[in-house]
Amino acid sequence: MKLKELLKILPDKADATFEIVEETYPTGILVKDILATYPRAAEYEVTLLDAGITTHGGRDTITLCIEVSNAN
Fold this sequence. Notes:
Number of strands: 4
Number of helices: 2
Largest sheet: 4 strands, mixed
Order of helices and strands: HEEHEE
Helix content: 10-25%
Low-confidence stretches: none
Shape: globular
Mean pLDDT: 94
């Protein structure tokens, strides 16, 4: 599945940890901001979609882990 297809079905305000394999480090970002920040990733294949928990300021937050790759 392409990233742009996945993002159409996810809630805009969902927290995500997003990474482009071999290009970027994982970063915390809202789903709605992924394509604005990484427009080149729209056509990349999703290689991982998983649920996770991130801790910030002593508070646990549910997050989506999204990993994409442009490798063929």
